[in-house]
Write the structure tokens for this entry.
Amino acid sequence: MRINPLKFSHSLTQPMKYCYSLLLFMVTIWSLAQDPNSNESHFEQILEQIESKQKVSDYAEAEVLIKQASLLLQPTYKKEVRYKYHMLRGSQYFNTQNSVEAQKVFYEVLDLAKELNDSFKIATIYSYLGSTYVQNALYKKALENFETSLEYGFGNHSESHNGTLVNMALAYTGLNQYDKAIEHLTTVKNLYKDSEDYQNVAIIENNIGEIYRSNIEDYSRAKAHYWRAIEANNKVGDKMALGMNYHNLGTLYLEMGKTDSALIFANQSREYKLVQGDEGGLATSDYLFGTIYLETGKYDLAIQHFNQSLSVCKKYEIMEGVYFNSLELGKVYAAINQFAKSQEMYEQSNEIAELSGDVQLKADVNFGFYELYKKQNRPAEALVYYELAQSLSDSLNALKAKQNLEELRTQYEADLAETENMMLRIKEKAMMQELSSQKWLLFLSLTSMLLVMIGGMWLVRTLKQRNAAYEVQKAAKAELAMNYLELKKSEEKLEHSNDFKNNILSVLGHDLRSPLATTSSLLRTLSIGSLTEDEQKELFGELKKEIDISLVSLQEILVWSRLQMDELGKLTEIIKPEDLLKDVVELHEYNLRDKGLHVKFNVESHKGLSADINQMRSIFSNLLSNSIKFSPIDSDITIGIAENDEHVLISFRDNGKGISKEVLENLNTRTNRITEAGTMGENGTGIGLRIVKDFIAAHDGTLTFENNADKGTTVVVSIPKKEIRELNPT
């Protein structure tokens, strides 16, 4: 499980560095002063001590011994000895969360393992490399190394094989491939069952339950696996593990909304932890109790338990625990209107979130501030925090870079337990130290001083390395966020292209269907062959007009398409709108005659229109077509041309039934397509108005619809005027 390191800075003073160097030199000289022929043997003894310290997680003393061994290492030592030294050094980096340095060491020692031609050693290195990539959330790279490890094989070393499968399950979980993760864990569980290793069976069952609970949210299956873990732990009598199992059951029932059952199992977990004297475990129990009481509205009890957990976390400097307890206390105090106290708790959480740099932690705190200010009826501050929280939350969706809060909670419990165990080991070590002579007393005193100072150096270096690793992780998150934004832009561009394609098809259907259908009808009439010469001439004239309409429409569509693709601007020229309108009326003569419509012009004195003639032709043609469509038979259409101080106004007035209030509002406000059947059932796609609006917008103009006082509708095109000479109407 990956840990988010928190940033702390420490430094040693220069005198301390000198003292450390002097003491290290004394110890080294003392070591080398022994039998020269036993240097390699002494080196191997140090390696055994390092190995024993690492097994009990005493990494501070292991670091001291590694530094001592590095001074004794000789290239003449056996390859097996040098391999063991480098593996212990890489394990030290790995165990202290410095995956970058660990990878360097493991890749270096890989060549040595291949020289030894030892498949087990090679498999072990690849397994370690996979685990370092898991620490950095590079799950695919981790799986590559795990698979290579299994290809080399571990022989009879079943524990190494099983451990690799478990780590592969972690990688699959990070990739959200939960089925594969459970499959690998089930394989390991069955292997442990065959060897009747029920302690490890319980661990695997619990881990499978956690995947079903926290990742898949299949509470029924999660519960079944928790109970199997409890059954296995009862067989081996592991009471501390039982406390954890019941704790997980309590959390499960809380997530299911069954708070009574959650309390029962939380109490069972607490009883096991009390017996074991597990102070860290009791802190996690208090956190669970606080969460349950917050959920059920028992705020006094929630505050009591969160504060108890917070006290332990501060005592052992478990920053994740301080964060979560403070965050929940902020929610409780806000619920009971103690806003100042709530603000204090959220600020405490925010300090830790900023220190860690974790985006999810920052987002949750800002959502907390948002809820707090919203409850205080302070909308301005609430909006600021909501937008900040939403921005942080959105960035977490960048591919697979987000941290799982459940991992942080689990890690804070593990840190508490590890801190408790370390304190017990220190106390035990202090009790066992007895001196036999004044000489050894002096030597051991110097050695103790050395260990303390080296431990400080190790702590500083480790924390700096953690910070460096975290900075790398932050940079990766930022890069993923940028990739996500680029992906969203690509998706929007693709969606725009798809809409544009659909619009083009609609336009083609709208503007070319009618004239082509008329052309087809005229051609069928001509093919009959029984027409008089005058009838043929008339039909040929109509056919030419329909073809001209089709060509003009096609030209308009091409112009509009290029405008949509930002490939075309306005080819502005000075035009007389009445001349252009007469051409448009002539093109629609067949449709006008078909419905017995009469076009009247009402042209006032005006200045010319500075515009793109092709785009204006398309605007006028579409608006006249609409007027024809909604005009009753044997009625008038009035086309007006006028101007005011700033605009030239072209209007189309019909005598139809008018437009409903709802459709009229949509026409004047929406950009979506709207279509209705005409007075003779004429159909449309609504795209004509889209073309009109786009061309008018290209001229910085406006389009408005209004119902007439008596009957019918008037559509007005308003185009900004240019300073040109006045033209007299004809």
Remarks:
- The radius of gyration is 40 Å.
- The mean pLDDT is 80.
